[in-house]
Amino acid sequence: MIKFWVIQSIDSFPRWEEILAVALSLANEFSVVFPNGDPDPENPLVNGKPEFESLPDLKVGRWPDMENSSIYFGSLDDAIRKLMMEFNRQNPEQDFSYLWHYTLYRNGIELLNVQDFTVCLMDLDTELTDSLEKLQIDWRDD
Asked: Using one digit for the tens of pLDDT, what is the confidence trace for 95-125?
């Protein structure tokens, strides 16, 4: 059985950037979900869509969890890691600048998944939690 730890609000979680940095260092694949259609500055679900659509070698498919949406899947490199970090910081010039839905994987195994902009599910049976514990990064909010 897969067990997850839930971080209810990454934007107020004290060590989120450290957790994400470790996850990004371990991950070698990612997926990100956007609604179909043209980017709309009034729709926060499309934050980052132009940047991710411009990446080379992405696989794009229909995302079954929401009508009229697509999932973009690809390999991680340093430029994409940097891009992921940038979309995990609130831009003071925007009301909301986080990615809506993304997942980080290591060799096809999900390390963490961020949904609804700020809710993170971390798989407890992966290298991520082991690495966080070795680095003494507290990922529990109790």
From this structure: 666 888 999 999 999 999 999 988 999 988 8
Read off the tokens for 83.
């891009």
pLDDT given for residue 95 in this prediction = 60
Which residue type is seen at 31? Answer: S
Q: How many CB atoms lie within 10 A of CB 11?
A: 12
Q: What angle (nearest 5°) sits at the alpha carbon of residue 11, between those of residues 6 and 13?
A: 55
pLDDT above 70 (res 94): no
- The predicted model scores a pTM of 0.89
* Residue ranges of E strands in 16-116: 29-35, 59-62, 69-75, 101-106, 109-115
Chain mean position to CA 98: 9
107: which strand partners?
none
